[in-house]
Amino acid sequence: MSKGSILITNIQRMCFHDGPGIRTTVFLKGCNLHCPWCANPENISVLPQNYERNGKRGTYGREYSDSELLEEILKDRNFFGEEGGVTFSGGEPLLQIERLRSVLTTLHQRGISIAMETALQIPYQAWKDQADDIDHYLIDLKILKKDICNMIIGGDADCYRANVRFLHEKGKDMIFRIPLNHEYTLKEDNLCLIEEFLEEYKDVPVEIFATHMLGNEKYKSLGLEEPVWEKVTDTVLDQIKERFEKRGIRAKIARI
Ligand code: SF4
User: What's the CATH code, domain 6-253?
Assistant: First the structure.
């Protein structure tokens, strides 16, 4: 990839669930994790990938220059209103934070709200200089037991905890998002760890949702095996919300 270019799979406009207000969501390609329930498999590899879908061929991932990306985002400026703005998602957007540096700085200077949807598994020392350009952090909360976290998603639970502490101490606006599935995140010992962890951050709102199979067509298009899940029911989501609330954790359900 040429210097300064940003690898993007999709720019989605008029999004209502990716942070406050109406937002334009930019999906960056490349992730350092491998969650078995990932709904965006096309965003995991750091390289462009050819695909075939319903007889149509294409490539996941296109490089944007800073000015091209800014132009795309600023087209939507009139829709953002008071609260809205741009959300960088992925993949793991922090992987490309160096390449995003000038775009983030410009958006920040122009007063455009910036959110980042992140698994927060990259040491903060690597992105702390840009941390204040980001207004809202939408933070995945998945598996907290160190060995299981590493084995299942390839993550580092200690790094995650240190990053959350770093942002919290800075007073950044945060929300935790917990993807729920019976196979991994809903295991009783994981839920207990999540509760203990959230008790340290009672001022941070929490959103829970069931993992889904909406990304399965994309697995197929890449020639990958499609994951099959028993979808967590609304009743279970209600029970988890109630359980969290009993511990003073502010939880809401996002029904997908
Ligand atoms: S962090 Fe997100 S994009 Fe990366 S593998 Fe997990 S679910 Fe997929």
Answer: 3.20.20.70
